[in-house]
Specification:
about 270 residues, 9 helices
Length: about 270
């Protein structure tokens, strides 16, 4: 499934252990040229070092149409084309210890500011990046949106995050129709349980708010949740997400658009 001579942009990929970097590794393994973007302060050099192949990086706010248009112009100026956009930028949250009173869960208290922040980082990022990059994308190109299984059903503890990711699913289907005249395909992946920075935050909150977990490691807490919620019994990896993203972007998926697939070990069944 070689993607040689293809140029791929992956947003929110500045952390080496994150989903974005894993996606970038999968594209690079198929000989694509990959450019990762993230915010100022992300360990971009470490992320690039974790991706063997022809990889570049840019600082760009995925929620800003102006910033992403500038980044896309830079990529196209350097490489001559853009074939694939992966909208990965986003963040689960808010951080309970910073944003919530008395350790309450987000469903019990959510300020306007927290709600708005969640929609910016998890929904506007997809919209702004798409609307900025697609005019510069090659006809016949591909957009891959990263949502979440939280988009597919109720998420009491992550209500704004789930609502935002459901919006990403909606954008996927809308843009699949909107960009079809240019043969640009738009598809979506809903990751399940991956031990990313978001789960590090969530398991830290669980330890803090549940005395019975005081002597249980965060990794053990996460693994127990995986066993309880995943029929296949295993956590997912960034490369599990990346493998589907590569397929979506390949000629093998030339008649697939508007698709929404959960990579979650069966947890959303």
């Amino acid at each position: 499934m070689s993607l040689e001579n293809r140029v791929v942009m992956v947003t929110g990929a500045g952390f080496p252990n994150g989903i974005g970097a894993g996606i970038a590794r999968c594209f690079a393994a198929q000989q694509a040229t990959v450019v990762i973007t993230d915010l100022e302060g992300a360990p971009m050099d470490d992320a690039v070092a974790s991706i063997p192949g022809n990889v570049g990086s840019l600082i760009a706010d995925a929620a800003s149409q102006e910033a992403m248009a500038k980044a896309a112009d830079e990529v196209k100026g350097k490489y001559g084309r853009i074939d694939v956009l992966v909208n990965n930028a986003g963040a689960a949250g808010p951080k309970p210890e910073e944003d919530l009173p008395n350790g309450e869960i987000p469903a019990a208290f959510m300020s306007d500011q927290i709600w708005d922040m969640q929609l910016v980082v998890n929904l506007r990022t997809t919209y702004a990046s798409t609307m900025s990059v697609v005019p510069r994308l090659e006809d016949g190109g591909s957009v891959v949106n990263i949502a979440s299984v939280a988009a597919l059903g109720p998420t009491v503890g992550l209500v704004a995050y789930g609502a935002a990711k459901a919006g990403v699913v909606h954008l996927t289907k809308t843009h699949a129709i909107q960009f079809a005249p240019r043969k640009i395909r738009v598809n979506c992946i809903c990751p399940g349980l991956l031990y990313t920075r978001a789960w590090e935050m969530l398991t830290a909150g669980m330890k803090r708010n549940n005395p019975e977990l005081a002597n249980v490691s965060q990794r053990e807490i996460f693994q127990n949740i995986v066993k309880q919620q995943t029929p296949l019994g295993e956590e997912q990896t960034p490369e599990d997400i990346g493998n589907l993203a590569v397929f979506y972007a390949s000629e093998k998926a030339r008649m697939i658009t508007g698709a929404v697939v959960a990579v979650d070990g069966g947890s959303s069944v």
